Amino acid sequence: MAAEEYAVVRARAxxxxxxxxxxxxADAVRMHDELEAPGEEMSRVEAHExxxxxxxxxxxxxxxxxxEAARRAMFAGGxxxxxxxxARRMYSLAYLALVRFDQALTGNRQCLNEAIxxxxxxxxxxxxxxxxxxxxxxxxIHSVDYSLAGALGARYNLNVEFLVHPDPxxxxxxxxxxxxxxxxxxxxxxxxLLSRRGDSDPQLQVLRQQLQAVKAHLVSLKYADIPxxxxxxxxxxxxVAELDLIPYAPPGDATGxxxxxxxxxxxxxxxxxxxxxxxxxxxRAEEVxxxxxxxPDLNEExxxxxAQLSLATTRMLLxxxxxxxxxxxxxxxxxxxxxxxxxxxxxxxxxxxxxxxxGWARRDGRRLEAARAYVAAFRVLPVLTHTQITRADKESxxxxxxxxxxxxxxxxxxxxxxxxxxxxxxxLEGARGVLLAEGLGLRAGPAADRATPRPSSTVEGDxxxxxxxxxxxxxxxxxxxxxxxxxxxxxxxGAASMAACQRQLALVHARSRDSSGEVAAPDWQEIVTxxxxxxxxxxxxxxxxxxxLVVTGEECRRTGPIPVDLPALxxxxxxxxxxxxxxxxxxxxxxxxxxxGRTRGQLTRDVVNHLWDQxxxxxxDVLGDCERAVLLPGGLLGMLPLHAAGTCASQQVDEWWFxxxxxxxxxxxxxxxxxxxxxSRPEMTRLTLVHPAPAPARNxxxxxxxxxxxxxxxxxxxxxxxxxxxxxxxxxxxxxxxxALRTTDVLHFTGHGDVDSGNPLDSGLHLGGxxxxxxxxLLAARGVRAAFAVLSACGTAVTGDALPDEVVGxxxxxxxxxxxxxVATQWMCFDDFTAPLMTEFYRCWLSGTHPSVALARAQxxxxxxxxxxxxxxxATFAYxxx
Length: 882
Fold this sequence. Notes:
Radius of gyration: 31 Å
Low-confidence stretches: 443-461, 514-518, 697-704, 802-806
Shape: globular
Helix content: 55-70%
Distance between the termini: 31 Å
Strand content: 5-15%
Mean pLDDT: 78
């Protein structure tokens, strides 16, 4: 269903409800704004009816913010219900520009671009309109002037970071053009106001002040990144003087002068606290902000969050400039308050508050404090990046997440505080979910292009959100009671828990307002529940070492994940191990690597030995004798055969031992994927075998397919009640394969695949000739019945590397498409060896064993029978899923 069609259906449903809830009111506003096309001569009937209904609501029904007040005034004045003509067009353009600008406050450049375009179009319509039409819009044209100037300044400020961004940098002239255009807009607006000098309307004085304030703000932006000098200092002082001229307006003022005065206080602080500002200016900035935050009528949380962030920054500068340590805790508290308020009102402010605090702490060597602050930022990331539509919007947040997430996770994993280790898991979970969604393109393009969420998933998400709010509120109440009973003069150790609980509650509320229909990342309690089926092992690696966080089930609910320090696991080590595997892949049997002087088998044994000694042995000590566990590796770690770790340094196979002989290890991109995959546990009654026509191997090291032996082994394992269907080579096509996914329980593909690590959407399976089934086809599939897929083709589990710390590949795409589990390969596979492995795997699996355990047992069996002694032959197969 297209977005507009959905809006019509939803609007009609709302109009049929006799009494609206608060959520219905919010939905009605959203549907109205979807249906009110910019500049159209007339509104849609449904938009008109929603507007009429919204006019009858009390003030609280539409909210109390600046945008909501403008919306009430627009609706009450009937401006969108005017007869067709230029005046009606201008009001429609101005209204929707304001709506888009409000949506852009999270840093969404696409909405900001739309707002700027709409205001510019409005000015064009004004220039072309007759005197009567201009007169009808005269009260609004000045607001358009300063709104456009402010929006251009906002876009300039957002784009400044892309002047130095590595990929892709923005041309300096393009960035500065916005600031120049903003100043020109202010000049035109000022001239327009001066032409009405004889007009006695008191509102004109307020408009002059607003234009003056925006101009001062633009001057602050102009010199924000320039070191203090004679020119910048004098113009900054002139800016302060201009802002000081804007007169104080008392609470209760109805002309708009009060809101103008309040807004200019933050502009004044920016002018006072620029680069190289003297301590006296910084102290005045602090005083201005404290006065602003104490204002009795300052009730818009997005403005409060911005003021708190400015206060935090000012106090940080004071701590640095004066060396007075008393400012440090004050700054930290202001950062935290800005984060909490921003999480409820403006996620971009919450992100900025957390990352600025983190950067400050990291610069001063306070690594644990930096990690805590960064993790708070990453908790905002899933909702923040959903509201940002274009790739450019997401770049800086994603780049920062990928860069510092492993460092944060390791720092917190080594912390003695339970809350820190829990935060590390939640940060890994949320950030990896975002990176996976970005890598698969699930959030690309405008919201209108996304599929409408299924009602069932919406209901399920609402229930989960309500339960999370209830649980967190109960926990917060418990901590508050505990704090009140703390003996005076003693240190209360629950402060970190309370802060974490408050942050999570604010974010759950923020997520509940997200209309994407996407399921939120699991919270800690749900992660513990998911670990009840099999322990979850989160793995991360940095330049300085690695860490694991093991969630073993109910025993971790209160104590948090079990930390495992992996000091020898560095990014450099991981890259060398991957290089050895890549070298092994291009060697022939018995050929030695010119680089390492080792054969294919020796290189692979080096890798699995190292993985056991440096990674999996400490983890195995925590896992004990559990039958299976799920690994959640990040980034490059996801390309290593962690499931094959063991000791095989001896020449005697009898002395070899592999962890999979005790604990079967499977993979998952994150716990949310396990949650989705575990929902369906179908009976396996249909198995479809697919083997395309042979295609030339893409690598000289790849052996030719021995399809007959493999399929014969699979068929020999068939139990009673399982129907096997075989698609002949000439019948294999994209349509036939997608149809098979809708009609079978297990899809077994024997053929060739390839992975485009730079663009995971282009990875796929070869279907004969030039035909391919790509990841994008799987994601677009509807009505998928298949629960499992066995991809017996080379490299089908290789992950992408377009985004660091991502785990994007065919298995992740198939799970996203609805499958529960996938057997795939991490490098090339040899069909002479694959046939006995698949025979044993299916025999064990179809007898009722979990697929990950069945695969591990099959690998151990063929190893002990001497059929697949070389780990390079059997370790390529891995299981991903629940």
